[in-house]
Amino acid sequence: MTRAAKGRKLKIALSTGGGDAPGLNAVIRAATKTAWHLGWEVWGIQEGFEGLIDPRRKLVRIDPRDISGILNQGGTILGTANRGNPFKYQVQTAKGPKEVDLSAVVVRNFKKLGFDALIAIGGEGTLGLCYQLAKKGIPIVGVPKTIDNDLQGTDVTFGFDTAVSVATEAIDRLHSTAQSHRRVMVVELMGRYAGWIALNAGVSGGADVILLPEIPFDIEAVCDKIRDRERRQKHFSIVVAAEGALPRGGARVLMEGATTDHVERLGGIAEWLGREIPKRTGKETRSLVLGHLQRGGQPTTFDRLLATRLGSAAVRLVAEGKFNRMVALRTPRIVSIPLTQAIKRLKTVPLDHDTITSARAMGISFGD
């Protein structure tokens, strides 16, 4: 019999870390409502792990009024951050910024506040930190969140469907202006080292060239596709590039500067392609970075439902006393897997994926 089954009123914490994704509020709502029906107390940890480093300013109790009407809202009422690694926390000293390990502070505050469990909603980076904190004694249940869809152990992460829908609509709109001006349009999509968004949106939006991190591309092969379309009286082309697309024999394009926690800031591949394509083909070319539009706005019906199922399942896992696990979709069921399985490696697009095979069969180029 679990502690909850014995009738003890539990006190649980919810946190959202990493980049925001449509459906975060739906998870918070479902988890909170499920916990209330069990008679539990729910608290929100604001801005990732910041709330456990400084709980006096960034810890809030979640009451019924706080989750009213948030099911269809993008973003997160708790705020989020892709910085603030408690194991490498940056503090300012007289000699400049310095990294310190505040993980013991996080664990101490968690226990001092009387929490029984932490439900952490995040992607590979956040859940990796959760695994380290779990080894230090915090009972954790993870919920898979990332628009990149690069987490192992789950068929899909919430936020991905919305991001693909937004990107597909953008590509649809680019067709008309590309055709009108007889231009090449290059659109850069998110995904970092996994090309799921670019692949799905590119095929769904009718792109002519799709460049993925998993398939290093030859710029001449890209231009050959554009020239071939010209010969066939197709005087415009749509090129979709994942932000982590890699030129063969070259390096990924990075933005200037670096984020905290030494994370590469990918970006600029569309601009690079926008310069190279006209040089080699003579075609007028424009580039567009869709950027954070993919993260914003209302979640799709699919993401709302998936997020709701995952949020409720996370609380039920706490009730069963099963910790250091992540809830996951294994169609048609919600299951749980060890955190170690979820973070052992990124889920990238397999080269023999059926969508790639179908795209090649229809003449879409991957630049290889």
How many distinct beta strands?
Answer: 13
CATH fold call of the largest domain: Rossmann fold
Unreliable segments of 5+ consecutive residues: 1-5
Helix content: 25-40%
Distance between the termini: 57 Å
The CATH class of the largest domain, by name, is: Alpha Beta
Described by strand count, sense and barrel closure, the largest sheet is: 7 strands, mixed
CATH architecture of the largest domain: 3-Layer(aba) Sandwich
Instruction: Summarize the helix and strand pattern as letters.
Output: EHEHHEHEEHEHEHEHEHEHEHEEHH
Strand content: 15-25%
Kindly give the count of domains: 2
Number of helices: 13
Structural class estimated from helices and strands: alpha/beta
Radius of gyration: 22 Å
What's the shape?
elongated
What would the average pLDDT be, to the nearest integer? Answer: 91
Strand order of the largest sheet: 3-2-1-6-7-12-13
Describe the structure concisely:
This protein is of the alpha/beta class. The protein contains 13 helices and 13 strands. Helix 1 runs parallel beside helix 11, helix 7 (160-181) crosses helix 8 (196-204) and helix 9 (219-231) crosses helix 10 (269-281).
List keywords for this structure.
368 residues, alpha/beta, Rossmann fold, four-stranded parallel beta sheet, 13 helices, elongated, disordered N terminus
